[in-house]
Predict the 3D structure of the following.
Amino acid sequence: MTALREAVALPVVFLTVLLLGGLRVADTITLTPPSPYMLILGLLLVRLVVQSGALAPERLLSSSRSSLANLNGAVVVATLWVAGAQTLAVLAPESGLPRLAVSVFFLLLLLNTAAASPDRTRLLRSFAVTFGAAYVLKFVVLHELSAPGGSRLGGALRALVDGVTLGALIQEVPSRITAYTALSAVTLFLLGIFLLPHRRPEPGGLTRRHDIRTLSGI
Amino acid sequence: MRETATRAAGLGLAVAYAGLIGWMTARQPQTIADVTGGLSAAAGLYRIDDQAFADGLRFFRNDQFTESRLAFERADPADRDAETQFYIAYSFYREGWGRVYHDDRLYAAGLEAIDRAISLAPGKRIVIDDPALGMRTAEELKAELQAGLRRDASDFNPMRLFQERK
């Protein structure tokens, strides 16, 4: 991996995720940092990225590297952490029961993925599918349910859903720009993970130690 | 050598970018002018538009308060200059002042502007050397605006009809 990618590209990508993911455009523009809960989920996400081999920490931080190079590596890991937390935060609904449900879902999903122990490619696919689904749920389904105006039938359906769920599903609808910035943040985050220095495949196409042990009957 | 320079530049860029995001999260700027104004003020490079400020002052002295505020806002688009914000607050006071009653909406806007001016002033101290003003410090103006918004027995004192606008 080039110094340019490690020192410039990756921190810029992840910090841009932090910026775009925090933008909430409604009547006013606010920049929201990830909550402490999302920062904890972000730690789990970083652990998962390392476990899968999508990030080889020894290629960012090791005693054989110079202090400056290690500092660059530490910046990459730190920005990966906050960007991961921000990506999860931007995909979680803003309030009510959906927020609680999606927050718990993210926790279970990260734990489940860690237990499944996927490799880099499968992890990237898993993130793309999960984040895509969460994006559709928040910015398409819930926003359509919550958006005022539209036809009378739509209004009636909304009133029905609102009544049945005691207002637990209805969300504050931000400007469409928020949806676009969220999509950009998620896409950039996936790109960032793709660009991370990953574990090099070992000879014979085996990338994981326990695969080697299993095949050799140890 | 070239790699070291790239790494050092990347580190500096990351720190600066993270600082910018932190600053934006703390300050919540609403416009690009707020962002550029805030950053240049932080670097000590913010300058108001002197011509627009002079226009605002001229309107203010002619009791054209709406026009003066428009000019002052043009002079200080990022709301970063204490003196300009003081005059904006003063224009709200003068426009809202009435012999019988004061306009609460304008006084409240004035209070907001003077609080902003005080927060921007070095040492929170504003003294304006302008002989046309009845109140030359932020404290006097703020106290006057707060008194105007307060409801008490003095509101019914007939002597207030003889008070003069400052």
Observations:
- Residues 3-199 of chain A form one domain.
- The first helix of chain A runs from residue 3 to 22.
- Chain A is about 70% helix and 5% strand.
- Chain A touches chain B at residues 3-4, 6-8, 11-12, 15, 18-19, 22, 28-33, 66, 68-69, 71-72, 75, 79 (CB under 8 Å).
